[in-house]
Amino acid sequence: MTDLAAESADQRLASLGIELPQVPQPVANFIPFRRHGDLVYLAGQVCEWNGDVRFIGKVGEAFDLLQAQAAARVCGLNLIAALKLACGGSLDHVSCCLRLGGFVNCTPSYPNIPQVINGASDLMHELFGARGHHARTAVGVANLPRGAAVEVDAIFALG
């Protein structure tokens, strides 16, 4: 087993066999990320893979918890792709994930909203180890862009 602390984020990405999608093109008047000093603010990413929204519909109706977590993981992969671009092509510049914000397009009584966003949170821990620990918000919403089941945004620190 590899010592996560000794392995760079780029090496960890490769050793996990994680493929990143293309950075999604914004569908409105915003950019995928904004750097300010040592902070990177990442725009919300839906569960899109190279232009194709993979999970369209409501969690608790069209998707169960495991499917919704997979949707959140796709959001996380899009965030990592945008973060890598913001870092000039190397995730080794990331010092930590500060915050994730998760939005779940769900039925009004769906109870497992925080567990859905674990799909993205678990990815951050898997890739960055202790540097992936973060504060987080998870909320249920009536709808998301393009009918997506999940959207996640993030803030990272570089160092």
From TrEMBL:
Organism domain of life? Bacteria
Sequence intervals crossing the membrane: none
Alphabetical list of InterPro entries matching this protein: Endoribo_LPSP/chorism_mut-like (IPR013813), RutC-like_sf (IPR035959)
The record places domain Endoribonuclease L-PSP/chorismate mutase-like at 11-139
- One Pfam family this chain carries? YjgF_endoribonc
Q: Which residues form the signal peptide?
A: none
**Listed name of the protein:** RidA family protein
From which organism does this entry originate?
Answer: Bradyrhizobium symbiodeficiens
